[in-house]
Amino acid sequence: MGLMYRNRLDPDRGMIFPFDPPRDASFWMRNTLIPLDMIFVRADGSIANIEANTVPYSEEPVRSAGPVAAVLEIAGGRSAELGIKPGDKVKW
Question: For residues 18 and 87, what is the distance between their CA atoms, to the nearest angstrom?
Fold first, then answer.
């Protein structure tokens, strides 16, 4: 279910979707009530791309820019607030 049906997401919360092996990832926002930032993370921990402020309820695919090992979903706009950008490293 991920973050579907939630009406809020605290700024210090999110959800990570790990993939083993890494793969091209595609998500949608069906039944997701709030905008999210989707951070697509390569196997080496570097951020491939960020789709910021995804549109609630949209069924349009939100895709990674190549194979990724994880997708981190956080509150919409939070990436910009924290200065997170493609190429940055993620550890978990």
Answer: 18
Strand ranges (DSSP E) for 1-92?
14-23, 26-27, 36-41, 47-51, 62-63, 68-75
| pLDDT value for 36 | 98
Instruction: Name every residue whose Cβ is closer than 8 Å to that of residue 26 and which is 6 or more positions away in sequence.
Output: 61, 62, 63, 64
Closest CA to 51 of 76, 69, 68: 76
**pLDDT at site 3:** 92
Task: Using 70 as the pLDDT threshold, list the residues of the chain that sit under it.
Answer: none
